[in-house]
Amino acid sequence: MSGNVIALDEGFGLLYTNGATLNWTEFSESASPGGSLGVSETILIQGDSQNDPNGTHFSSLTDEDGNIHVATNNGESRVVYLRYNNDTDSWDEPVVITDQPSGNYMQISLMEDGTIKITYDAIIDGDRVVAVSESTNGGDSWALISVLTQDVVADPGNRRVETPAYAQDTLPVFQQVESASGSNSLVYYEVA
Fold first, then answer.
1. 102: domain range?
2. Which three-class secondary structure state does DSSP give residue 158?
3. Span 19-28, mean pLDDT?
């Protein structure tokens, strides 16, 4: 099980996976310490195609309006975007952001101008790369804006990526690569 605790206007929420589903539950400020989880809502069935049986590979952030933005795998090797709409107190339907096989590792970032970017591993034209897609309309539609490649190692292994949740003009991206000898290093990119 893996989870993110998210601050809400009147309490907090827990976004968590159990390896096969992505779930959401909320707690009010008056919740008793030591109490059990509230009623959970399954917001995405991911199936068993995750490479990580603990389902730890999802990323979330909250914008200034209290909307929650999530990037994860849909269980069919595709990155999907989900949004919790704070005005309607509900989750929107998942949006598949790429047709390429992808999505074992992903990070979501909110830029200063409101653009949402998702960085993820992908296979494009047979090459294993890191890709960045963005939405300029609050997550309603997505476009691939950058394909990141490196020449540190021939086969980077698991293309794990890290980005900050919030960035200004340029998105810093770190990619973990593994050499044939098993040593790890980081590759740094900047995406405008």
1. 56-191
2. coil
3. 85
